Amino acid sequence: MSTFGAAGFWPQILTWLPFIVALAAVWNGCNKSISPFLVVTALLGWWFGLLTLLSILIFAILMGLAALQPLLPKRFQIAGHGVLVLVCLALGFQLIPGVDKLNIVSDAQIGPNSEKFSYSIGLEKPFIFMILLVAVPWVRENDHARDYRTATVALLMLVGVFLVSLAAGFLSFEFSLPRWLPIFFVGNLFLTCLPEEAFFRGYIQRGLASQIGVWPAIGIASLLFGFAHFAG
User: Does the pTM exceed 0.70?
Assistant: First the structure.
């Protein structure tokens, strides 16, 4: 692993650039144009020691399976979704061998009252987003009116929780602008939050909602999300 600012850090982070381009292409429905970007990602990852040949082979097989999912006969769809869920969980829990992380910061304390903080980025979670977009394209379908309402309610709840936490003393302000903050912000948003939301909300919740209704689906997806993050 390389740490932010250490020799070799900046070349290694280039591994994610072609992958992000491939994600953008899939998001816009240009699945046939992503192969060169994925090949470049694999080569860079291997060159910088972030991926082994075994992990590259596994990722290639998973991409192939994802591409087959929409083509499965209806009687095999449930089994296909079961495999897809297991694949996403294996990626999310970092069970794929031969995948290293790029360490952004280790045991950093950004202020005298702050807890020590470590952050690294990997390819497993963004790859979840990739295979979901390929296997179940409907995860990117939006009901904009409902999305705006949901976002408004979520924002109000977030502000409420934040204010209550401040009042209870669980949170306190400690202003700091560490130099790794931009990478943390972009990486956490696009390489962690988006894949997790795509899996739990876009895939699990939306898929369940079509079968059992919206509110039960929200409850189940929320419980699964909380359970997955129970350890921190």
Answer: yes
Instruction: Express each pLDDT in 22-34 by its tens digit.
Output: 999 998 888 888 9
Largest CA distance in the chain: 59
Question: CA distances (Å), 225 to each of 115, 132, 189, 232, in order?
Answer: 24, 17, 16, 12
**Contact partners, residue 166, CB within 8 Å, separation at least 6:** 172
Q: How far is CA 49 from CA 56, 104, 134, in A?
A: 12, 16, 27
Q: Report which of 42, 232, 10 is spatially closest to residue 127, judged by C-alpha positions.
A: 42
Asked whether the beta carbons of 206 and 138 are under 8 A apart, the reply is yes
DSSP category for residue 158:
H
Domain ranges of the chain: 9-141
Averaged pLDDT for residues 127-144: 83
Alpha helices in the chain (DSSP H): 9-13, 16-27, 35-47, 53-68, 77-92, 124-135, 144-168, 181-187, 194-197, 206-212, 214-228
